[in-house]
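Researcher: Here's the sequence for the chain we discussed earlier.
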Amino acid sequence: MKPQQAISPTREKDFSRWYQRVIQVADLAENSEVRGCMIIKPWGYALWENIQAALDCMLKATGHHNVYFPLFIPLSHLQREAKHVREFAKECAVVTHSRLETCDGGKLVPASPLKEPLIVRPTSETIIGSTFAKWIHSYRDLPILLNQWANVVRWEMRPRLFLRTTEFLWQEGHTVHATEAEATEETKRMLHLYESFARDYLALPVISGEKTISERFPGAVRTFCIEAMVQDRRAVQAGTSHFFGQNFSRASGIRFQSRSGRLEYAWTTSWGVSTRLVGTLIMMHSDDDGLVLPPRIAPIQVVVMPLLSKEETRTLVLTRAESVATRLRGACFCNQPIRVELDTRNLGYGTKKWEWIKKGVPIRLELGARDLETGSVALSRRDLSPEERRFLPTDQALAEVPRLLANIQANLLALATNFCSAHTCHVSSEREFYQFFTPRNAGRPEIHGGFVLAHWNDSSNIEEKLKADLKVTIRCIPFNVSKESGKCIFTGKPSPQRALFARSY
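Model: Thanks. This is the structure I predict for it:
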């Protein structure tokens, strides 16, 4: 480790501060003057744009269309569905006045109270539901498959960049169906889409499953999720998909004339992911030298660095570097042109090198005056040691870049998968469970445990006790775990399968 270049503190010493430092040195985001809100900087926003673009293509390929609904929601809309959205009540921002005016002393004060308060969108089910009620009349109008890219506001008590902020960016899908079976199929289809996206683009292995009753989205009949493990062994809920049944349809009056001529309530779903995905991949892939990015979503996949220390060879080196960058831009990775940056800034080699390391660019190609003579370049991979370089003939290096990008993508997924497997444990007793989640090192209480798979018999009292005792929750009832029956490790009562337990963000 290089004390002047690497992240301080390290992951091992203080994971929370390490995470904040990675965001800082990679120039991803910073806190704004409004508590709980963040400024997403160009590198961080480019990362989100790539996530958005890839996921948007996947959504459109499954028949969904993008729309946009208002940021402001009349209070009466939420009141209509109060029992479904009560969990959001304490997080809502409320607009009560329409303008400001100047009073004595020159101070600006609110004026013109609104006839009805407006809620700044915490989620869009209520306003979209009221619109669906106007749009839908017959079974011929169904299904409706819509998606919205938007921002939402939830008054966050304990903000953390990308993971939990008062305002954040997200994607939320909303669909309406004529039958329960179609809506259920849609809910599961979107969960599988999120699972594929996390694996194939973010190199994140996730566990898919169903939330318990106490962890369901307010108003949902069933909630499905994908859960990811990060390097401090906590869970992050990386995406959710909700089957609402007819709950929101009844509240909003979404009815249609069926094929048999009867007036029926529709079946609805909702599903979404957010900028939390950025925080998740930071905490899973990055190291003590900074950010590490999967090539498929990296804003820049290859940086070409000409070494311009000698004035007499400067023009020749620049010309060769421009040629290398041009040839790379003509190559493809995953059916897309390779994203290449030619760094010609007049900065020292070490400064430029470590900037790109900290930003997580997957591949660096360096060439200087000496390389002109040999016809070679120095190639470095971000997923390996920063000091590890291979000197290759230029043509060979350029031919290898697409393969190496694919190899880096696969390697990051393999490392994350092995990490998750190594810290997932089957537990057979309550004593063993408590030991697993009890910190073993008082100096590092945040590094402990991981995921536990254990039998549980649907008792909400047990869930509440574990939250109080250990701050552990049931993340989901996993789909991809063998459904062997057993006995609940807490009550001894029969249990149909194991649940997934963890501490979480």
